[in-house]
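TICKET #2291
ISSUE: user wants both folds in one file
ATTACHMENT 1:
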Amino acid sequence: MLELAIIVPTLDERENVVELIRRLETVLAGIDYEVVVVDDDSADGTPDAVRALARSDPRVRLLQRVGRRGLSSACVEGMLATAAPYVAVMDADLQHDETILPAMLAKLKAESLDLVVGTRVSAEEGFGPARQRLSAAGTRLSRMVSRHELSDPMSGFFMLDCRYLDEVVHSLSAVGFKILLDLVASARRPVRIGELPYRFRSRLHGESKLDIVVGVEYLQLLADKLIGGLVPPRFVLFALVGGLGVLLHLGILYAMLARFPFGWAQLIATVVVMTINFFLNNALTWRDHRLRGAAAFVGLLKFYAACSIGALLNLEVASAAKDYGMPWYVAGFAGLVVGSVWNFAVTAATTWRRRRRRGAAPPAR
């Protein structure tokens, strides 16, 4: 009987994931398990390497996602795709200590826990000074959305009972890299949590996927847990990009007025800022299904069209509000809100619309 599934999200981890699967075969001897590798369409041959292993080992499975990325969403899809009653999540980069998996499973079952978290002996072990500060800041911020005390809430190495997953799965944000915090913060009852320490190892092959966008996604996760029922966090990020665009627009307009009439200066500033806003939203707001190549060019044209209509709506609403007797700042804000909501809704439905392949369906337990 299948007892345990190891969910391994990957992006360009060909050499590491092959070694990890080999190690799991050794440490999980005597346990009926499977390894579910969820790959975000790696360019280094990771899917082919995993398929080659799966042909000779039925315990190895591959879910290859095309057109979308994100560690948390990959973990959720992997967890929902297995029939095992217990699932573990770990990175493919060999920094997590796979030898404690049997102890995690034993603790989970013996103590009837919902979650067992692999905690680094020191939460910042193996990090440089900058990474240590970011990790410490992330840990402090996590207390805003979680009532549960975890010594290492930023851990990406844990095991859970799938009955608990079924309780919280529809409340998950599935944003960014910190799926553990998402799982704990989504609970509507006290979560039974255990911890097991391990030593965080150095990456064996490849490069870390952490960058500034990961920090933005973490803040997006926190926002979703705090205000997700009122305002979509993706809209908040979209609005922040738009606010930055307003400041940039004024700066460009001021610079262009030295060489062009106002009409031309306004046009140049508008096109430049709309272009910058598109690429910022493509990289941040909709990073999980970012447009590339020819699709990005087509998306840019759609973005121009949507935002041009949004600008007209902004002007019409603001003018109507002003004529109705509202103060100029209230009228201006009303127009801005209507234009922003239009731009967000239309670009989400057209520019960054998710396309599901014919016959495909989301996994379900």
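ATTACHMENT 2:
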Amino acid sequence: MILVLLAVSSAAIASAQIQFGVKAGYNSATYTVSGTGSSEVNPKSKSGFSGGALVSVPLFSSCFLQPEIVYSQQGASFSENGETAKFNYDYLNIPVLFKFQHESGLFAETGPQIGFLLSGKVEEGGISVDNKDQSQTTDFSWAFGLGYKLQDLGLGIDLRYNLGITNVNKPSTDGSSGSDGSVKNSVFQFGLFYMFK
């Protein structure tokens, strides 16, 4: 997939001017849980920050290839017996999006994303414990988004949903997913971006 994207990007760059941009926004992140004991688990959303850089490569009329590199605060919170535990996970995400943009400035985007785990901690009762060793170091997801760009100013907004594909729990030594079953990232992102002229 990477080789195909590089080939497409190289061909597009050779015949069109690319644009660079920066972005920042708000995350509402949680987990979708299935498998053993999932009916007893009710994860709640957790607020976070996302920010990074993007490149817009024209492919053909109204269509663009948009690779990004984004720092993203994710995870979830869990409440039980009056106690709240927060899973604070930081990722470096690299989405590669196919974007269709109407002349009005409205656009839709979708594509795969790979995330690299930077840190993973569980916070409860004022105590923070490192949990990175119990988690997958890479996370695959699929992104869906809508937005609007002010063409003359280069400013824009977008609303994106990242649907987790990878079980973020590290498998146990016997190959199972452990007692917590399957846990996948589920992240809504609201962002602002600016494209340099």
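RESOLUTION: both attachments delivered.
EXTRA DETAIL ON ATTACHMENT 2: Residues 82 and 125 are 11 Å apart (CA to CA).
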